[in-house]
Amino acid sequence: MTWVAWRQHRWVFAGIAAMFAVLSALFLIAEASGNGSVLTWSGTVIGGFPGFLRSYEELNNGFAPLPILVGMLAGAPLLAGELEHGTHRYSWTQGVSRNRWLVTKTLMIGAVVTVFSAAYASVHTRWYQPYAAQGGWFMIASQGSLALPAACLFTFALGTAAGALLGRVVPAMATVVVGHLAVLVVERAFVRRNHLLGEAPDFWTYQAIQLGLYAGLAACCLAVSFLAVRNKFS
Amino acid sequence: MTEVAIATRELGRRYGRKWGLRGCSLSIPAGRVVGLVGPNGAGKSTLMNMMVGLLRPTEGELELLGERVGPNTVLDRVAYIDQEHSLYRTFKVREMLKAGRKLNTRWSQRIAEDRLRARGIPLDRKVGELSGGQRAQVALAVALATTPDLLILDEPVASLDPLARKEMMAALMSAKAETGCTIVLSSHVVSELERLCDHLVVLDHGRLRLSGDINELLNEHRLLVGPAATAAAVAAGQDVVHHDEGSLLVRGVRPIHDPQWRVEPVDLETLVMQYLSMAYRPVRETVS
Question: A211, A212, B152, B243: which has the fewest Cβ within 10 Å?
């Protein structure tokens, strides 16, 4: 079963690995070359590598696009791809039970998503360290070593569940975008705001809060996926 | 042949408020090649999907090879090919065989390779690049390599061109000769099944119309042909299945005393057509 999952989703594994590897490499270079002070200046328009880093950080601070990419690439096609092409009629009538089939797939892809996003998050956090005093740690709260992997797992699970329920890849991808942004808005408006207004705002405490939130949502989405695969199509 | 391959009792499946199949009670001995016929929407796919665990029955009982259908039960002895001969399109044929080996505890690489070699299908070709006929052959090879006791094919030739149809039917004939496993295949064209099948199941509007050994069914049924004026009198003494203009389809013909009427044998296609055009009546089944 692991071979089949690997062979079916090898481009997903490669895509996720490549995406986070390239980003990690970028920030290793940025760290080595001392690029990052750009985060502290105000107003001036700059280009080149520093300009890119600034836009990238603002984008991530804004709406955290990395989990969206993960959900669209790894989550949405996982079940919807099979249902759209009818190959579930092959996959689900073999000797391997449907449950084990889905456990294997979600474990393998989930592991790749977690490992590569966590590796990237730690490289990114290390690069940011010298600038944290000026920019503040909360600038990279959505890319923290706990928050980012958890958010990526959530979007992966959301895409999987949406794919199981909708049976189509593109609507499942759209659900990932909408679902992720909805959770982000609600989380920032209530959870982050309350934390920042509280007694002692702390980056790692907030990371743990995000980890709990996103891991819980991911677990719910996975449960929906398993139930849907077990019931909806039987 | 004492083992029962397929046993259903009052089996039914509802989609919302509409029943796809209802009140279906069947018993089919092992080793048969079963033709499942009926027009589109008759309930053929519904019945097959329930057999392979892709649909859960709303009511009734379903046993295959003496076991109730469910997860981790009899399904590893059952192989299924859907209408589109669905396989992973990006896999090479060789990889499809490897997938079959990894996904099934019972797997014979030799069966799959022999069948594909005999039909000249290259193992290094991607499934998505094969012709429809070749893909059907790969699907059949992959299904037979799991050494099933029961092989279920939903409209196996419906999507194929005439030549590929002929080749697929030939491949099924050879599978029947080589394996001896019970085969169930559906079609809405009776003539396609006539050479291959020895057992017939007729479904219509979600109801079972007829089930039995084909030879026995043909022996039992007769077409009575004569003038319409005396049809009612003749019908009175017979077990009439269907009353058509100028002919009566009867089961277990009794002597006719009217010389204007003659008794003719019935062919399979006529038999099925007459059963499909009759108003609904409770199931008639021959005890095999």
Answer: A212
